[in-house]
Amino acid sequence: MKSWNEFSLEEPELANLGKQMLFKAKAHTGLAFLATIRKDGAPRLHPICLVISHDRLYVFISPSSPKCADLKRDGRYALQAFPPTENEEGREFYLSGVANCIQDPSTCQVIKAETGIYVEEGEVLFELFLCQAMYTMLLDRGTSSERPWHRIWQTPAQRHA
Q: Which CATH architecture has domain 4-159?
């Protein structure tokens, strides 16, 4: 697994494309869909607010949320950027990896101070570590030759899975 910073250093162009797709309105906070694994093994999909701080990718989640219980039990996740705006149509960004619960209150304080985000008392902080990232763009959009083009990054362990 790699942090967002490690991924960015290995694949700066792909990380920049992903950051544009995830963090459209604000530099530090973004929106995406987060898929987690329910207790019975079925997938669960949630909209989520992302935070980037010190080149690391985080989510704050209410402790009563099913997605919090899912990530505490089985940290595996998949994340898809919100649907593109009109001028971005035909583009997608996807991540997968493992979420790690951060217990250190000082880390939470640093993130809140840097980003200026509001976090409710008791929210649980997870850092999202990556094993795969994929950017997709439609080529020859709107023609009979339309086809997807993918740029994929994977950790070595994921390449051999």
A: Roll (2.30)
Contact 81, 93 (CB under 8 A): yes
Tokens for 46? 């949630």
Beta strands in 7-160 (DSSP E): 29-37, 43-53, 56-61, 76-81, 91-102, 124-139, 147-154
Q: How far is CA 18 from CA 3, 39, 106, in A?
A: 14, 30, 28
pTM of the model: 0.90
Q: How would you class 33 by CB atoms within 10 Å of its CB: exposed for 0-12, middle for 13-18, buried for 19 or more?
A: middle
- Tens-place pLDDT, residues 105-144: 889 888 988 888 888 888 999 999 999 999 999 888 888 9
Higher-pLDDT residue of 90 and 59 is 59
